[in-house]
């Protein structure tokens, strides 16, 4: 008996490689689908539909059992997985591949005012709130409140890794190709800023890659701030410490 906790890349890649004639495999996760994370940022701008990047677990690993429950605890001595609804699962081998929560690094205000981009629901939320903000900016312009328009249309993206860089690219394309056409009166006030604490972007790759991406984003109108560490986040302001 093999119990796999999680429904992401690691969990399902492992489960698919097991011989169903030799192992009794049960996948446990509160999320009943796998989703293709590289396309998550596209769901924030409507390039892809959230439904197009998800696949039901039962289709992804059809030869395994799947239970949509939360794992609450593991009894290692007795080899039992304790789930909600009073369910207990025996196992011979346990694979824990539940992923991780976004890291706030203990920065005040991030949990309250920040928006993460890790799950399907995050993409939906970012898209909805972004479009709501744009409509509010149109109203603020009609009321003659230019300062409010500028504040509403200033987007700050924290993190110069793959997700942050890709989101900035998608967002700047969305602004240039769609929003400026649909909202011409407020077009000049859009501003995207990418903040990274390290001296370059995409530090997991060769330096030339990060430099190329930085130049590309800046040509698209993205303001890139390197060696800038977020110290505090407020409802309408991000405080940075820079060298």
Automatic annotation (TrEMBL):
Enzyme class, one word?
oxidoreductase
Q: Which residues form the FAD/NAD(P)-binding domain?
A: 1-238
Q: Which SUPFAM superfamilies match?
A: FAD/NAD(P)-binding domain
Keywords annotated in UniProt: FAD, Flavoprotein, NAD, Oxidoreductase
A Pfam family: Pyr_redox_2
Q: Does the keyword Flavoprotein apply?
A: yes
Asked if the keyword NAD belongs to this entry, the reply reads: yes
Tell me which domain of life the UniProt entry assigns to the organism this sequence originates from. Eukaryota
InterPro entries reported in the protein's UniProt record = FAD/NAD-bd_sf, FAD/NAD-binding_dom, NDH-2
Q: Which reaction does it catalyse?
A: a ubiquinone + NADH + H(+) = a ubiquinol + NAD(+); a quinone + NADH + H(+) = a quinol + NAD(+)
- Please state the Enzyme Commission number of this protein: 1.6.5.9
Please give the PANTHER family that the UniProt record associates with this protein. Answer: EXTERNAL NADH-UBIQUINONE OXIDOREDUCTASE 1, MITOCHONDRIAL-RELATED, NADH DEHYDROGENASE
Spell out the family assignment given in the record's similarity comment: Belongs to the NADH dehydrogenase family.
Annotated protein name in UniProt: NADH:ubiquinone reductase (non-electrogenic)
**The organism of origin for this protein:** Durusdinium trenchii
């Amino acid at each position: 008996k093999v119990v796999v906790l999680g429904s992401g890349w690691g969990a399902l890649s492992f489960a698919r490689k097991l011989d169903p004639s030799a192992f009794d495999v049960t996948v446990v996760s509160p999320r009943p689908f796998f989703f293709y994370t590289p396309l998550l940022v596209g769901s924030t701008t409507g390039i892809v539909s959230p439904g197009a990047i998800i696949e039901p677990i039962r289709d992804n690993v059809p030869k395994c059992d799947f239970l949509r429950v939360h794992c609450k605890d593991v009894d290692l001595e007795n080899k039992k997985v304790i789930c909600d609804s009073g369910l207990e699962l025996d196992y011979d081998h346990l694979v824990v591949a539940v992923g991780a929560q976004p890291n706030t690094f203990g920065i005040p205000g991030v949990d309250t005012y920040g928006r993460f981009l890790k799950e399907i629901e995050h993409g939906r939320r970012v898209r909805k709130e972004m479009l709501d903000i744009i409509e509010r900016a149109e109203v603020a312009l009609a009321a003659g409140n230019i300062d409010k328009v500028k504040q509403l249309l200033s987007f700050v993206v924290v993190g110069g890794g793959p997700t942050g860089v890709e989101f900035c690219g998608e967002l700047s394309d969305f602004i240039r190709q769609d929003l400026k056409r649909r909202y011409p009166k407020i077009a000049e006030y859009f501003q995207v800023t990418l903040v990274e604490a390290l001296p370059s972007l995409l530090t997991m790759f060769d330096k030339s890659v990060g430099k190329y991406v930085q130049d590309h984003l800046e040509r698209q109108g993205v303001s890139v701030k390197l060696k800038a560490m977020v110290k505090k986040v407020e409802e309408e302001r991000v405080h940075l410490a820079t060298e």
